[in-house]
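Appendix B, Record 12. Input sequence as logged:
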Amino acid sequence: MPAVDDAATIRGFPMSLEPPMTVPTSAADARNPGIDTLRGLSILLVVLHHLGLRIPLKASALADVLPKRLLVALNYNGYEAVFVFFVISGFLIAGNALARWGSLSRLDPHAFYVRRSARILPCLALLVGVLAVLHGCGFADYAITREGQSLGGATLAAFGLHLNWYEGRTGYLPGSWDVLWSLSIEEVFYLGFPVVCLLVRDRRVLMVLLAALALSLPFSLAAITDNEIWKEKAYLPGMAAIALGVLAALVAQCWRPRRELVNGIGLLGSAGLAATMLAMPWLWRWLHDGVMLLLVVSTALLLLALDWRHRSGLSRELPGLGWLRSMGRLSYEIYLGHMFVVFAIVAAFKACGADAGSGWLWYVPAVLACWALGGLVARAWSLPCERALKRRFMPLPAAVPA
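Logged structural output:
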């Protein structure tokens, strides 16, 4: 799951102690509630997806009062939600870099890599450590038993950022390991991102290259026909989505349209997202793998509208959605840890002898537990580790003599 490097600004937590950069401090540069809400919706869909694979809503009593298509959309858009995250990740990380350095051609690789490492490694190390212990104890939902797989191989793949390739070659890993496929794609992209930015110093050329990579998404998906797992988790399609997010951040920096056009772009993006989530089977008949391009383009359009409105001081926090915005701010921690909650909830559901009709009742405690676990990990582990790593590897500059 994509993780942007702004975790230290989670409400209620201290700010990062990294060196001051050239970041404006106006209200327009505070957190964007619209983007936090979109991130929260995406991580919610991921959680609902993994619950739905085990306790489907379409088999519950909700099917008597709600359209089956809506219940299916709630349960089976987790993969699409990850691609939404990819676009958001590219948009926010490139946008943060533009705010700090003014141009991607002036990006500081050392600072960039330290920030990414400080954000990613603490949670990754904690997750792999816990999973190794659970594997050693032989717990069914966590033990790696498939032929050709091992704890050492999975650990190397997780830290070597090729767990997606490892699964494509050997088969699916247990659920708590499997979530790391998206992190492999994202972080390989960001390993090369500063290098490309410094080599391609012309913004227009960079935008053309990003657009070409983004437009390759349906073709790179269609080209994979002999391996279902690799088709789902290959590097290039995910990187295409991240590239579109970076491209959108560059567009947001250099173009400020009128309010009416911003509203139209936002409505178009929202409609495209809703269509891909709700009408995927019908759209697939016409677009096939191109439906994923529609998904990510719609996400990019919505992000542009949310960003422009925020910069103009027009964004508002919608009442009643604070919990969803909070989940968005904790999306990385929730993504890495939510399978522990899913397995526990499913085990409790089975142990209680509950029938499928009451399955929907287990969703609320599951979502609340995922949210609470993400907040606990952020407060007790990821944020303290992130601050410590930044303090260690990005020391404050020496004072300038008067």
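The chain has 18 helices and no strands.
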